[in-house]
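In keeping with the milestone schedule agreed at the kick-off meeting, the structural modelling team has produced records for the first pair of proteins. Each record is given below as a sequence line and a structure-token line. The laboratory manager (R.T.) confirmed that both were archived under the project's standard naming scheme.
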Amino acid sequence: MALPFDLSKLVEFCRRNYINRLALFGSAIRDDFQPDSDIDVLVEFEPGHVPGLAFFALQDELAAMFGRAVDLHTPKSLSRYFWEQVLKEAKLLYAQE
């Protein structure tokens, strides 16, 4: 299932929120993605710009952009045992220039 979104809006979102990298992982990039699936998003923030409680507002903004629920993660929020698998399968959508 293709995931429609506006790349220019995603780039603007990342720049505005000090995101170095944004990638998708999980079912959103596999064949088992369903109409009711959420989207797992991995973000890496610029040093000194981790948003604190505003993190949840970022998650909501991404959900509106993608048109479905989003689970937002950072490298530190993922289990170290799960991290290697995420790195192998993640699809990079944005990287700071």
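The second protein of the pair:
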Amino acid sequence: MAATNADDHHRKLQLRHSSSSSSFSSKLSNPVLACRASSVSHETSSLRKDNESPVHGLSEMIVGVLGGGQLGRMLCQAASKMAIKVMVLDPSENCPASALAYDHMVGNFDDSATVQEFAKRCGVLTVEIEHVDAATLEKLEQQGVDCEPRASTIRIIQDKYLQKVHFSQHDIPLPEFMEIDNLEGAKKAGGLFGYPLMIKSKRLAYDGRGNAVAKSEEELSSAVAALGGFDRGLYVEKWAPFVKAPADVPWKIRKLANDVAYKAISSLEGAGVFAVELFLTGDGQFEQHLRAVVGLPLGDPSMKTPASIMYNLLGEEEGEAGFKISQQLIARALEIPGATVHWYDKPEMRKQRKMGHITLVGPSMGVVEARLNSMLKEEGSENKIEAAPRVGIIMGSDSDLPVMKDAAKLLNMFGVSYEVRVVSAHRTPELMFSYASSARERGIQVIIAGAGGAAHLPGMVAAMTPLPVIGVPVRATQLSGVDSLLSIVQMPRGVPVATVAVNNATNAGLLAVRILGVGDSDLLARMSQYLEDMKDDVLTKAEKLQKDGWEAYLNP
């Protein structure tokens, strides 16, 4: 597992260093805060006068942010929920963060004098972009200003080559890389690493900018020219192919990836949210960053939804034409369940400029991917986007279908997508293995398995997938299904199969809906209504029986 540069595919990992034990303490007469990631302790913003009423928020200090782009805007949004005041320093009067910030100082965040003046008005200084003057931050730290993350970290991350050297010195797995100063050096790298070859700028590289691919030695010169030449400072990486990002990988691989990310971040100084590329998380990193830099307890970084996708809104055309294209896509997004639009309110539209993003959430990655496809399809398209199946209905033989169809009917009634397959544990063991091992990756969340006789299918599938498996004993022999019932229900410890009554695929469908309903409030509401309808049905029958008598009831 390597920490590689694949832009826009991140898993955010929040980390508070334990190198110091400074904690929150506050007296209204002289509030003092210490960032948990540093030993810096200082008074809050000098803007507050002694005779002013204290701010009764989660933090007394004013957070200063170098940069007022979309990340600064989202930082301000998170701060407003916690009554934390955020000031931004940005050269644009109409920067995205300006409308939401507590205050906006217009000025360049890479100008030393301006940054030093800005710092006087803040209790802690942080950044929303790494392209700042690290030397100025070092001076401020020497003067006692709390800068998070530390200037040493900023210096490392703003030079991608220096970043690679740093991580290699800390035994972080990386793609092979080397510095290049001329065309001969680039050719040497191509001979060593092979093609295609990734060429990158050391500095000012982000969101796909500063990268060029040479597919052969003949393309080296044009790739270097596209990056501004060797004087810009270039290095190369061995090509790191990946099929899909984010990858739905097994738990062991995910843990290994987290370990790599933790090790990488542990080598850096300071507080905040760090991104290790090729990993994905949900939102919440902006509130987490604020908590880290002002010394509040960190929140739970786990996903709040089972699956999510972020789609970037990039400028496709200049000016009004580009705005029109974006608005058309936003209009489609507003019709998609689980879609939320985040527009950055940037005043100028340029090609490939990030203008916003859309988050889509849902009960499974398959469902979310289907929603994304529906959002991206052109208006008037005749291609129907089918919902990815959430439930897999499998059986050992088509002779089981008359029983298993009841599960499908029940799922239809609740609007739950599903698939129906014949998968024999004895006659097609390879197919059974393939189905069970791939179900989760395809978005399946529950498996209903029907089997008669020896009835090995439910248990074998349960042994090969972490998904819940519901077994339906099918009456297929002279033993009236008792044999299949006992076979399914008597699974060994560690391989659970939820078993319903013989031939009762309806209950299997209901149980699947209840399992899905744990993470789907709409589905749970429908289940509650189903129970109410059953009660009303029984009460109606009871009233009719009492009113008409049993003879009339049986002979209407």
